[in-house]
């Protein structure tokens, strides 16, 4: 990490706040001596809760490494998942093929929610015009909403997700705050959008409370219960599931690739590879020297950038002048717009609404 995180801090020994948090999670969760026992207990509970239903858990699938490995893992644990995919219009051919091959080989049923493109395009443009570094939040929020909606429809309590401490222990609030905050998303759209969000999947703080405390839905980071090494996971799914790599973390989406590899470093001055690689260093999967070498690689070749830029702008209906205007707008942060998190009552209830970190 570097000071592209405006809130990074260091102690007297030169250790940053991110490392301290990552070390705590790794020591207390990844190195939990009772992890295998907890996994076996969790699997038994999930099987019992879903014994009279077609499915006993819900998983999200994107064609990426983590979600593909979750599908592989849960089937090998003897669970009966329903796979859920949000089609936001930005899937690459590689991601579509990965999803298809994975679910065919594992014999997992798939539910796909195809988002209304005109609504979603308008929301994405609104986020770009808002000048916050969170233009992926409309997708992240919709995925969370549709997973919980399908779980409710199926009467399933367990949503097993691919986020994990092994590869995602680092996070920068100013880079990614607000993806769960429906008020924040709604306010940005109201200010910069044009098309009413009639079908966009969303979930409010009240919905989260109902899902957790009334419906007893549990959102579980299943990969934290196993030893998850990214390179090994990629080798397994390539061999077992005919999976194909797509070039970078979350690059299974073309918009994500263009946003992370071009807009974020050019407009906001940060490179998300820093947190991705830092997490791998913290969990012992790569060395700092390897990460530094990786950071020296260019994010985009000129021909590839030209091609992707042209495609993204055309799909969003933006011309070059409109895009340049967006790129030169003064940068904003999550805190510059209304949100639940800025409300006193949310800060009071947040400990009840946040997802559990520790294994149970």
Question: Can you walk me through this structure?
Answer:
The protein has 360 residues and is an alpha/beta fold. The chain has one domain (17-245, 330-353): HUPs (Rossmann fold, 3-Layer(aba) Sandwich). Helices cover 54% and strands 7% of the residues. It has 17 helices and 5 strands. The protein has helices spanning 17-30, 35-49, 65-76, 93-106, 117-130, 137-154, 165-168, 173-176, 182-192, 205-213, 230-241, 254-268, 273-282, 288-295, 302-316, 320-328, 344-353; strands spanning 57-60, 81-87, 109-114, 158-161, 218-221. A 5-stranded parallel sheet has the order 3-2-1-4-5, sandwiched between helices.
**At the fourth CATH level, what is the homologous superfamily?**
HUPs
Report the principal-axis shape. globular
Number of helices: 17
Please identify the structural class as seen in this structure: alpha/beta
The proportion of residues forming helix, as a percent range, comes to 40-55%
Question: Kindly, what is the distance between the CA atoms of the first and last residues, rounded to a whole number of angstroms?
Answer: 31 Å
Strand order of the largest sheet: 3-2-1-4-5
Arithmetic mean of pLDDT: 91
In a few lines, what is going on in this structure?
By secondary structure, the chain is an alpha/beta fold. The chain is 54% helix and 7% strand. It contains 17 helices and five strands.
Give structural attributes.
360 residues; alpha/beta; Rossmann fold; 5-stranded parallel beta sheet; globular; disordered C terminus
Topology:
Layout: H1 17-30, H2 35-49, E1 57-60, H3 65-76, E2 81-87, H4 93-106, E3 109-114, H5 117-130, H6 137-154, E4 158-161, H7 165-168, H8 173-176, H9 182-192, H10 205-213, E5 218-221, H11 230-241, H12 254-268, H13 273-282, H14 288-295, H15 302-316, H16 320-328, H17 344-353
Parallel strand pairs: 1-2, 1-4, 2-3, 4-5
Helix pairs in contact: 3-4, 3-11, 5-9, 12-15
């Amino acid at each position: 990490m570097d000071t592209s995180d405006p809130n990074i801090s260091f102690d007297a020994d030169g250790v940053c706040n991110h490392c301290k948090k990552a070390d705590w999670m790794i020591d207390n969760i990844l190195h939990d001596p009772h992890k295998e026992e907890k996994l076996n207990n969790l699997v038994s509970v999930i099987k019992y809760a879903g014994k009279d239903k077609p499915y006993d858990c819900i998983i999200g699938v994107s064609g990426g490494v983590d979600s593909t490995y979750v599908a592989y893992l849960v089937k090998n644990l003897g669970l009966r998942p329903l796979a859920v995919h949000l089609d936001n219009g930005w899937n690459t051919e590689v991601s579509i093929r990965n999803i298809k091959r994975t679910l065919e080989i594992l014999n997992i049923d798939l539910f796909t929610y195809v988002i209304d493109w005109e609504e979603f395009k308008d929301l994405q443009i609104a986020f770009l015009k808002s000048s916050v570094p969170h233009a992926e939040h409309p997708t992240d929020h919709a995925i969370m909403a549709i997973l919980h909606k399908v779980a409710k429809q199926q009467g399933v309590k367990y949503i097993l997700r691919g986020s994990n401490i092994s590869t995602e222990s680092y996070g920068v609030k100013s880079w990614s705050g607000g993806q769960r905050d429906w008020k924040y998303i709604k306010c940005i759209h109201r200010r910069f959008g044009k098309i009413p969000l009639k079908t966009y999947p969303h979930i409010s703080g009240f919905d989260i409370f109902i899902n957790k405390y009334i419906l007893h839905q549990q959102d579980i980071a299943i990969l934290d219960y196993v030893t998850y090494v990214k390179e090994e996971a990629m080798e397994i799914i390539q061999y077992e599931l005919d999976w194909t790599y797509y070039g970078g973390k979350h690059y299974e989406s073309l918009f994500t690739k263009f946003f992370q590899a071009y807009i974020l470093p050019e407009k906001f001055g940060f490179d998300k590879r820093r947190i991705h690689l830092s997490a791998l260093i913290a969990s012992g999967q790569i060395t700092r020297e390897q990460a530094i070498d990786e950071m020296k690689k260019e994010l985009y070749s000129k021909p590839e950038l030209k091609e992707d830029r042209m495609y993204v702008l055309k799909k969003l209906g933006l011309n070059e002048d409109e895009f340049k205007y967006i790129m030169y707008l003064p940068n904003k942060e999550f805190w510059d717009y209304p949100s639940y998190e800025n409300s006193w009552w949310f800060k009071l209830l947040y400990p009840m609404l946040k997802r559990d970190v520790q294994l149970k």
